[in-house]
Specification:
alpha/beta, about 200 residues, five-stranded parallel β-sheet, single chain, globular, about 10% strand, about 55% helix, Rossmann fold
Length: about 200
């Protein structure tokens, strides 16, 4: 898939590093962003997906409205790899299908410079093969943890459980073509993306 006419850029990094903030800067610069979390949230409301998840994990993961309780499900799957694998087997094929549809749509849009994949487990599920370039987003551990505590209410145990399910930062950085540091301001992010985007588009 990486041979498409528009470059496909994969964004990787640890939870809390600010991958979505980096993606937003690329969007401002004229790129289309495909956000796997948004696709996943939408899928979680589909009756067939709800049915499969209930079959796999039981009625306890539903809220009183009959919808998936994301917190209960998240706490469950990030404590046990088998549970996470079970969930991924249900949602990942559907996420991939939707991502491919969006890529095809964006490839034919002359107003879009490149396509950005904001996918939390991009390397873990092998989607680097879709990409022309991988960007590693770095942020110090203290900064990442503070962001996750403030934005998601995650405690240290939850953060460690989530991080354990992912490749190490050394591996992510080694696989990547470019690095963006995200310890400071949005204006600093904008400057870094403005430097990297032309390098990717030139190839």
């Amino acid at each position: 898939m990486a041979n498409n006419k528009k470059s496909i850029i994969g964004i990787v990094g640890s939870p809390g590093s600010g991958k979505s903030s980096v993606s937003q800067e690329f969007e401002k610069a004229g790129c289309a962003v495909i956000n796997a979390d948004h696709i996943n949230h939408e899928l979680m409301t589909h009756p067939d997906v709800i049915s499969e998840i209930v079959e796999a994990f039981g009625q306890a993961i539903l809220n009183p409205d009959g919808q998936i309780d994301r917190k209960i499900l998240g706490d469950l799957v990030f404590k046990e790899k088998k549970a996470l694998d079970k969930l991924n087997n249900i949602v990942h094929p559907r996420i991939f299908e939707r991502e491919k549809e969006l890529i095809e749509q964006y490839q034919s849009d002359p107003n879009i410079k490149a396509i950005v994949l904001d996918v939390p487990l991009l390397l873990e599920v092998g989607q680097q093969s879709w990409c022309n370039a991988i960007i590693y987003v770095h942020a110090d551990q203290e900064v990442r943890h503070q962001r996750l505590q403030e934005s998601k209410g995650w405690d240290l145990e939850k953060i460690k459980n989530v991080e354990k399910q992912q490749l190490t930062l050394d591996i992510k950085q080694e696989i990547s073509d470019h690095m963006i540091s995200n310890n400071s301001s949005i204006s600093d992010l904008a400057k870094q993306t403005a430097k990297i985007l032309p390098l990717i588009l030139e190839k």
